[in-house]
Design a protein that fits this description.
The protein is of the alpha+beta class. 22% of the residues lie in helices and 26% in strands. An eight-stranded parallel barrel has the order 4-5-6-7-8-9-10-11, surrounded by four helices.
């Protein structure tokens, strides 16, 4: 009798435990064609913002801006390479890298979170989120059913899970959905050289990894409606990117989701990405308001990509390519013409969407937060100059018979100076067909021209005298983040350099200049125009606030303020200012500029109260 009673109690405990588990599982679920939160149909009105692109001090403000626009959810990519900066090196705690804190702040503001962990992200981010050093792993092929790559993905997914699995909604957090891969249908359509079975095996293995690491349903995929065949997974909600036609959306989702919803546009574009040397893309507020109301009237869930773009600080911006340009590097600003501007301001697009959400959203929408303070800085003195070539050459060079790639030099970003000494005079056509991506060329220290992958310029006539030196300063302008060419992302000089079609071999010296940190120990010296220069100086402020550093008088390079790399600038535009967050400023400030072209000497810069993002100089 005692044994029977004990067995009964065990069964009863198991029954209630399973019932509790089911209750927990149903906190947020997909059921009967709807998103259900605590058993009630709940629309998902989401906005994309990336914690990596926003100073940590501003995270809460930007989340509050999203909420004030009428949204109830934040979607964010996780960029693998942002947290895994070198083999075996992980950082989820320092500054902007503290993803768990970002998600917790969103929860404190009563916002759901949609997680987009990749491992491929795209997002106009360097290498689509992949760590550059994967290219050094023998036999590894990115985004394929390749054991070396899958093992690297498994390590990343398991490490990320440690940070975010406890923050899923069934564990008391606010993460409601997780994306599996990203726009894989698009990749399938571009990689017809890979068998469909191999593509299927790859995405199934990534899905399995996520589940084994503790990520919980509901999961979703994200593709253009015409690409669901290659990107969708059985039992996973397919969502559409850029689909404005409700009938098309429902037809595609029904086909791959048991003839029912919910129906969601996972990337609803209120703006668009921007490249150097191309016009800044604008989309009208009225057009976006009209499309938003179409979704709201028809019960369509959506995620505004981007609701707030932020900034590609440092060397984080990625690149595209097309038939006209071998590479199209993205500008530093990720303003995206989004409803919330790069500096967190409400725009007419914001106001239009907010007005609609006040009409349709089944919840109260809070007031708009105050804008962050903005200041002008009339004068930022660049009082010191240092010869950048001399500074770079202070280190010991790597010597090889041929130019080595960044990856072979164990360098991910920045610049490399390639130097070759000639014992005899020679002249002719210098060809650097393997340039990745931008180079300034010097003979005996004097600039003789530029090579440029953006404009497909790979050759230049040169004349090298007896006992002369050829120097080529090469810049990585960001690895391609989208399309089939993502697999070809080595940087530096990746093919033989030729002069009059003869390969130049023997005695190449390579000086690494990653500029991972602000250059220091700078000597004060006169620098001739045409040679790259390091400007530095100090400036004082009586009050701090956001500002926009006017770099229109400079040529091409990067800027550090108080040790923060603000990102790249380039006189071709359309971007002519760099966003400086006020939270990075203080009473006494330092500035360092690496100016590659140095066509004229600049003695001062200024910070203004508005950005310049639409001025081309071609």
């Amino acid at each position: 009798m005692h044994t029977i009673r004990t067995k009964y109690l065990v069964v009863l405990i198991l029954f209630f435990s399973l019932g509790f588990a089911r209750a927990q599982d149903s906190l947020f679920e997909i059921k009967d064609g709807s998103f259900l939160f605590k058993g009630k149909p709940t629309p998902i009105y989401s906005g994309e913002m990336h914690y990596e692109r926003i100073p940590k001090a501003y995270w809460r403000h930007r989340i509050q801006m999203m909420k004030a626009m009428g949204l109830n959810t934040i979607a964010t990519y996780v960029f693998w390479n942002y947290h895994n900066t070198a083999p075996g090196v992980w950082d989820f705690k320092t500054g902007n890298k503290n993803i768990s804190e970002f998600i917790k702040i969103a929860q404190e503001e009563d916002m759901f979170v949609i997680l987009r962990p990749g491992p491929y992200a795209c997002g106009e981010w360097e290498f689509g989120g992949y760590p550059w050093f994967l290219q050094n792993v023998e036999g590894l092929k990115v985004r394929e059913n390749n054991e070396a790559f899958l093992e690297a993905c498994r390590e990343y997914i398991n490490r990320l899970a440690e940070e975010v699995v406890p923050l899923q909604i069934n564990n008391g957090g606010n993460i409601i959905m997780t994306q599996v891969e990203n726009e894989f249908g698009s990749y399938v359509s571009q990689r017809e050289d890979i068998a469909a079975e191999e593509h299927q095996a790859y995405k199934n293995k990534i899905f399995k990894m996520l589940k084994e690491a503790g990520f919980q349903a509901p999961f979703f995929t994200s593709d253009g409606t015409w690409l669901f065949e290659g990107g969708s997974l059985e039992g996973v909600l397919p969502t559409a990117n850029g689909e404005g036609n409700v009938a098309n959306l429902k037809k595609a989702v029904d086909k791959y989701h048991n003839n029912e919803g919910p129906y969601m546009v996972a990337e609803f574009y209120p703006g668009w990405l921007d490249h150097w040397a191309e016009p800044f893309v604008k989309i009208s507020a009225s057009a976006i308001a009209k499309q938003t109301e179409v979704y709201l009237k028809n019960g369509i869930n959506f995620n505004l990509y981007m609701a707030h773009g932020g900034t590609n600080f440092g060397f984080t911006s990625g690149a595209n390519y097309n038939e006209e340009h071998d590479i199209q590097p993205d500008i530093t600003s990720y303003d995206y013409d989004a409803p919330i501007s790069e500096a967190g301001w409400a725009t007419p697009k914001f106001d239009s969407i907010r007005a609609l959400m006040q009409k349709y959203a089944p919840y109260e929408i809070p007031a708009v937060p105050d804008q962050m303070p903005v200041i002008a800085i009339p004068e930022i003195s660049l009082s010191k100059t240092t010869d950048a070539l001399a500074y770079i050459k202070k280190q010991k060079p790597v010597i090889s018979d041929r130019p080595l790639t960044f990856e072979e030099l164990e360098q991910g970003h920045g610049y490399v100076l390639y130097k070759k000494h000639f014992t005899q005079p020679i002249s002719g056509m210098l060809k650097v067909l393997g340039l990745r991506d931008f180079a300034t060329v010097y003979v005996n220290g004097k600039k003789v021209g530029e090579l440029n992958r953006v404009f497909n310029t790979y050759e230049i006539p040169i004349k090298i005298p007896f006992n002369g030196n050829l120097e080529i300063l090469v810049e990585n302008m960001g690895r391609i983040n989208y399309g089939s060419e993502i697999v070809n992302n080595l940087k530096g000089i990746i093919e033989p350099v030729t002069l009059n079609d003869y390969e130049i071999t023997g005695g190449w010296e390579m000086y690494k200049a990653p500029f991972a940190e602000v250059p220091n120990d700078l000597e004060v010296e006169e620098v001739k125009t045409g040679r790259p220069v390091l400007y530095s100086g100090n400036f004082k402020l009586s009050k701090t606030g956001d500002t926009f550093l006017d770099v229109s008088s400079l040529g091409k390079g990067i800027v550090f303020i108080n040790g923060h790399n603000l990102g790249r600038y380039w006189q071709v535009g359309p971007q002519q200012t760099l966003y400086v967050p006020g939270c990075w400023l203080k009473e006494n400030n330092s500035i360092t500029v690496f100016e590659q072209l140095h066509e004229t000497t600049v003695s001062q810069l200024s910070g203004q109260i508005k950005p310049i993002l639409e001025t081309l100089n071609l």
